[in-house]
Design a protein that fits this description.
single chain; 34% helix; 20% strand
Length: 326
């Protein structure tokens, strides 16, 4: 519950009604009531004009956090907007536009720049950025830089196999004083960390053995109550594969809290295998035809353990369903 309480306090740096607060939590109404009653008795929150405010004591719980950026569409109240992060978007875009080119051998494929910001907005809206320790496995989208520019996380660690990318993120971090830790790392080896993290983020490969390896390594390093985010498509992964991934998470005492379909678009993804298998010519795809869903989950108990070093060869990123892999 420590992580849940922290998230509630993060959201209350902007006063909210009980009903607004309930919408953004992972706990049910009974649990939320108990937590709020406890905070009220401790003098950490108070009610004024039908809104919940942090008291002076509550403000001291975390003086750094300010969740006051606009994130939701005013028309539908469910879509996510990057407008409230315009200052970060233009600062970030200059680095995104000059990052190292993707290498197919590393199965790299970057989402659009604005989708990186949209992912940032989503994670921010969930209260998972503020004073958290974040682990990112693979970061060819440079999400770590965008997140660090908010000044909200306590710590960001990036592990990536691409030495060029690791050096680029390190150089930007030094120039912008972002304090991102970077290390060249292959997912086939054990993660070189001895500490527990609060949030794990990855856009893993989509072979079944590969994505299970990414998720198990990242989730095993989360503290109980830790949150994880990953992308998964319906293009390279069947519903049967989705089910096997979900079963792994459920058996590992994790729960999926959110699935947002077609959350990010990836320009320039390889499509010739698709054309070659069709009996007719489908024509050229639009630039951003490849979409990925964003999945968020919570680790409840420490039941997923990290495996030792492995050598998987091409099966790390390729199986019978990964049609967009060369």
């Amino acid at each position: 519950m420590r992580g849940i309480k922290k998230t509630i306090l993060n959201h209350l740096h902007t006063p909210k009604t009980f009903w607004e607060l309930m919408r953004n939590q992972d706990v049910n109404a009974v649990q939320l009531i108990n937590i709020l009653n406890n905070l009220y008795e401790q003098g950490i929150i108070e009610m004024k004009t039908q809104k919940i405010y942090l008291t002076q004591r509550g403000e001291k719980q975390d003086s750094k956090v300010r969740l006051n950026r606009h994130t939701r569409c005013d028309f539908c109240d469910s879509g996510y907007l990057i407008d409230g992060f315009g200052d970060i978007y233009y600062r970030f875009k200059s680095y995104y536009d000059t990052k190292p080119k993707n290498i197919p051998g590393f199965d790299q494929g970057s989402m659009r720049c604005k989708d990186v910001l949209k992912r940032l907005v989503f994670i921010y809206d969930k209260g998972d950025l503020c004073n958290t320790r974040i682990l990112i496995l693979g970061d060819d989208d440079l999400l770590s830089i965008a997140i660090a520019m908010t000044g909200l996380p306590q710590e960001i660690v990036v592990l990536d196999i691409d030495e060029r990318l690791v050096h680029y993120i390190h150089d930007v971090s030094s120039k912008e004083h972002l304090n991102i830790e970077t290390e060249v790392y292959s997912i086939e080896n054990k993660v070189p960390l001895q500490k527990k993290m609060d949030v794990f983020i990855s856009d893993p490969v989509e072979s079944l053995v590969g994505i299970k390896l990414f998720l198990s390594r990242g989730i095993s390093l989360l503290a109980n109550g830790g949150r994880f985010y990953f992308g998964l498509t319906h293009i390279d992964s069947s519903l049967s594969k989705w089910q096997k991934i979900e079963q792994m998470l459920v058996n590992g005492s994790c729960v999926i809290t959110d699935v947002v379909r077609d959350f990010a678009f990836y320009p320039g993804v390889y499509y010739k295998n698709i054309k070659e298998r069709l009996f007719f010519d489908p024509g050229l795809p639009p630039k951003s035809w490849y979409t990925s869903s964003l999945i968020r989950g919570v680790k409840l108990e420490d039941k997923i353990s990290e495996s030792g070093s492995v050598s998987l060869g091409t099966s790390l990123y390729k199986d019978d369903e990964t049609i967009t892999v060369k």
